[in-house]
Amino acid sequence: MATQSATLPAARTVAGPRRLNRRALTMVLLVAPAIVLVVLINAYPLVVAASQSIHDGTLIVTGKFVGLANYTDVLGSPRFWKAARFTLIFTVVGVFGSWLVGMGLALLLRTKIPGRSVFKVLLMLPWVVPIVVSSTAWNWLVSTPTSPVPALAAKLGLGDVQILADPVLAAVTVCVFKVWVSFPFMMLMTSAALAAVDHTVYEAAGIDGAGRWQQFVHITLPLISRSTYISWILMTIFCVNDFPTIYLLTAGGPVDATSSLVVLAYRSVFQDLQTGPGVAIAFLMTLVLVVISTTLYRQIRKVDIA
Question: What 3-state DSSP class applies to 217?
Fold first, then answer.
C-alpha cells in the first residue's frame, strides 16, 4: 500500500505536464495559421519595399542595385526638407490643435446644457462625413476669389485674397482643415477618459479650496494623461500618414508649400516614376514614427495616477 501511494503522485506529476504540453501544442496549432497569414501579409510588402528602396527602378522593373544612394539623395534634397518642415508643422498643429478643441468641447459637454445629445451628434459630423465631401466643401469656401471667404475678405477691405494660391495662406488653411476633421476623435478620447474620473475627487478638492483651474491642472490633466498620450500617438500617426486631407484640398501646392512627406513620396513613385526615392521617404517616415511612438509610450508607462 505504501508503494502504491508513493507511485501515485509521481504518475500524476508526469501526467500533468503531458496535459499542459498537449494543450499548449493544440493552442499553437490553432493560432499558427493566423500568425503565418499576418506575417506574410505584412512581411512580404515590407521586404519588397525594402528591396525597391535600394534599387534604381520603377513599379514594374526593379532596376539596378544602388545601395543607400536613394537615402542619401533624399536626405540631400531641399525638396525633402521642405516637405519635412511642413509635415512637422502640420503634425504639431493637427495633434495639439485638435486636442485642445476636442478637450474643450468634451469639458463643455460634461456640463448640463440643453440638447447635449444633439450637440454630440452634430460635433461628430466633421469626422463622420467622408473626407471627399469635406474637402469639396472647403474648396467651395476658399478656392476662388468669388468663394465666400475671399469675398468676405474683399468686403472687409483686405483686397483680392487668393487663399489657395498663396503659400502661407494655403498652409494655414490645410492645418485648420486638419484640426476641423480631427477634433471629434480627440473629443471622444477625452470624453471617455473624463467619464472614468470619480466626481468625489473634485468635491474633495473643492472642500480644500481648490479652484476650477487648479482642479483642471492638478486633477483632470493627470488623471486623463494616459488617454492623452495614446491620443497623441494615434493622431501623430494619422497626421504624418495623412494623404487625402492635403491632396484633395491643395494637391501639395502652391509651389510645394503644402507638400508633406507622404505627398512627396506619392509624387516620386506615381508621378515621377522614381520608386526608390519614394519608398526611401516612406521608410524614413516610418523610422520617425517609431521613435515618436516609443517615446510617448514610455511616458505612458511612467504615468502614476495612484
Answer: helix
Report the interhelical angle of 167-195 vs 131-142 (nearest 10°). Answer: 140
Model-level pTM? 0.84
pLDDT digits (tens, 9 = 90+) for 59-103: 888 889 998 999 999 999 999 999 999 999 999 999 999 999 999
Residue closest to 104 by CA, chosen among 77, 127, 123: 123
Q: Which three cell numbers stand for residue 191?
A: 470624453
Q: How big is the chain by its Cα radius of gyration, in Å?
A: 27
State yes or no: pLDDT of 14 exceeds 60.
no
- Cell digits for 41? 501579409
Three cell numbers written together for 26: 493544440
Angle formed at CA 149 by CA 143 and CA 150, multiple of 5 degrees: 70
Question: Residue 175's closest CA among 96, 90, 249, 248?
Answer: 90
- Single out the residue of 280, 135, 304 nearest to residue 222, CA to CA: 304
Output the CA–CA distances (angstroms, integers) from residue 41 to 34, 35, 49, 58, 60, in the order listed: 10, 10, 13, 22, 20
